[in-house]
Amino acid sequence: MLKQKAAVFFFSLLFGQSLYADNLGGVKSGFLDLNIYPHLSDVSNDSVVTLNAGAVFGNRLSYFGFINMFNKAGRSELSDLDRFYTEQNLRWKLATDSSVDATIQYTQQSGSNNDKLRIGVRWRLHDSDYFRATFNDINFKWSVNVHALQFDHDPKHAWQIEHVYGATFPSISDRLYLSGFIDHNINGTVGPNVPHHFIISETQLGFRAFDDVYLTIEYRINQARRSDVNNVALGVQYKIKF
Predict the structure, then answer these.
(1) Which of 50, 58, 111, 195 lies most in the core, judged by the most C-beta atoms within 10 Å?
(2) What b-and-e string marks burial along 89-116, b requiring 16 or more CB atoms within 10 Å of the CB?
(3) 6-15 per-position pLDDT tens digit
(4) Which of 77, 84, 160 is nearest to 119 (CA)?
(5) Per-residue confidence at 79, pLDDT binned at 50, 70, 90?
(6) Is 194 in contact with 188 (CB distance < 8 Å)?
(7) What kind and span of H or E run contains 3?
(8) Contact of 77 with 37, CB cutoff 8 Å
(9) Domains contained in the chain, CATH given
(10) Quick one: which of 12, 49, 56 has its CA closest to 30?
């Protein structure tokens, strides 16, 4: 009960309204997880704190969002946070038995003229009739979100393909999981040394140490940096499910 109240409190802050509003149909399930990364292998000014949140509402509506806090360049991990990046996603299932969602995503980060609003369609392959049995057999989930429309300050028509995946390994251990994403950004303007097509990706392997605490290792690819593209983060995660 305490976990659920804490989750409702945080979601209320994110939405700015009660999560039990009639138009959302009530909260069916959800999660919160806090990730702290005290060690980064190569890039000291990468993200060191991440808060993820997700919820499934009635009326075929769901939510996922996160905020990343970044370390200041040249400072030791967690000693000085100076930037942030956040994504907020609303998804609406097209039909009760559909594996396709209409999606809207808003991104915001430190600095000016860099917020984005994206509209797209997500296909949950693991929920589709044709692939469901195969994905269930290998304990794997995979969705593809095509953000076909992007509204921002970029004069070019930028768009994005986002892959999100996850797996469990019951034959090895029910404490072990894998999760991650690959963002393929297309035709955007980032900087003089950054190509118009680049990938940002994170893959996290986690092991539940005790209760709701996990030990994690995360492999990151950020081609927008052009130098020090790869990074590895060691961290601790605390997760609340409700």
Answers:
(1) 50
(2) bbbebeeeeebebebebebeeeeeeeeb
(3) 444 444 544 4
(4) 160
(5) confident
(6) no
(7) helix 2-15
(8) yes
(9) 2-241 (2.40.160.40)
(10) 56
